[in-house]
Amino acid sequence: MGKRIIITGGGWAGCAAAAAATHLGAQTTLLERTDMLLGTGLVGGIMQNNGRFTAQEECTALGGGTLFQVIEKNLRHKAIHFPGHHHASLYDVSSTPSAVRRFLEENSVKIEYRARISSVEMRGNTIGSVSDDHGRTWEGDIFLDTTGTAGPMNNCTRYGTGCAMCVLRCPAFGGRVSLTALTGIKEIQGRRADGSIGAMSGSCKLSKESLAPQIIEQLDREGCVVIPLPPELMEDHLRIKACQQYALGAFRQNLVLLDTGKAKLMAPYFNLQKLHCLHGFENARYEDPYAGGKGNSIRFLAMAPRDNALQVQGIENLFCAGEKAGLLVGHTEAIVTGTLAGYNAVCRAEGHKLLVLPRSLAVGEAIAFVREQMRTPAGLAQKYTFSGSVLLEHLKQMNLYITDIPMIRRRVQSAGLSGIFSALPKKGTEK
Ligand SMILES: Cc1cc2nc3c(=O)[nH]c(=O)nc-3n(C[C@H](O)[C@H](O)[C@H](O)COP(=O)(O)OP(=O)(O)OC[C@H]3O[C@@H](n4cnc5c(N)ncnc54)[C@H](O)[C@@H]3O)c2cc1C
């Protein structure tokens, strides 16, 4: 029988950790607060834009590409361009969650829905078991915290414009609870440039059917529609956005829509009455958040102190990934860290040395760089993504942003890590 790996939080990070752990033969349980997988990934969809391309290919060369293959089968558009972003792909936000669920179930991951972890039993500085709101308890050898950093409602009210009724559905399922915080570890909060806490999510979903036929047709054909805004309709939310890679003038001067099956509007919120003034948007309505005319969810409120193997510092058998592992924005960022955390969880359970990815790889550099940056007040006011802003600029300077796939594979091979995630090291072969 494999060791028991318990993953709390079924967003992209938790799903990737589950895929990695079950592949290595661990008895893997994924606990999700709501009734759907993917968390904030239920409303996202953008992959492979800018440096996310490199990170995805690196992770694949490392042997951790299975979830990317699932996504690839659910893409609506591939290799598209939109302002500031190249070779992006867009997954279908309706079909992808179920495809991921089926993939995990077929690979023996036990998924428990409506399992909101709200208490923990500690044995010294080791977690013995976790329990949910209904009193169900899961014992394990190693635990992962992939609960994300969004909400709950009191935070969206305190640091944002109130609950905008997003897909996280806190009123129905209870808000996010951090496993790390339950163990007594003090968490880290992200800041905005003005010193206030958290950051607002940067896009909303419009119901596609509510838009004019010519907009729907262009979205279906090209994946992207850019509509110049008259000055009186421009809104200035660039500074509050979690996704700084989209904090470009083009996203203020234009309405940028992307086709994820829904019309993804690249603004944290946009006044509905103003939207109705635009030709083709007379009947527009929000699908997520429901109050997208007023606000959006607030994130980056609770991150775990961790090392570069993604172990939570201070707890022997706890790992973290995704937004919980730092100010990392994105599905790709969640998947690559989730894969590493899932791999290391099994390594720890089986008595192997933990893997720290080298800084000669974009993913290794990102994990180490973000941790260093978060130690400074200025670094805590940034967000980090392979797709733009500070991290991409840093990777460019280090010559780590490349899109030549054979070269990415050679770099992984030079590091001696080709396929590392696909099997545990043989005893006695670890460096
Ligand atoms: C509106 C929006 C649009 C976005 N668009 C994109 C995009 O197009 N491309 C992109 O790359 N990134 C996008 N992002 C960012 C991206 O979605 C996230 O950075 C990334 O997916 C985070 O994944 P995660 O697994 O760390 O956390 P989350 O997605 O927050 O998942 C955490 C999960 O844990 C669960 N959970 C919380 N507490 C508990 C508990 N106590 N017990 C059990 N379960 C719990 C939650 O229900 C949730 O399912 C977007 C984010 C938002 C909000």
From TrEMBL:
Domain MnmG N-terminal, residue spans: 274-352
Key words of the record: FAD, Flavoprotein
Names of the cofactor(s): FAD
Pfam families: FAD_oxidored, GIDA
SUPFAM superfamilies, alphabetized: FAD/NAD(P)-binding domain (SSF51905)
InterPro entries: FAD/NAD-bd_sf, MnmG_N
Annotated PROSITE patterns: PROKAR_LIPOPROTEIN
UniProt-recorded name of the protein: FAD-dependent oxidoreductase
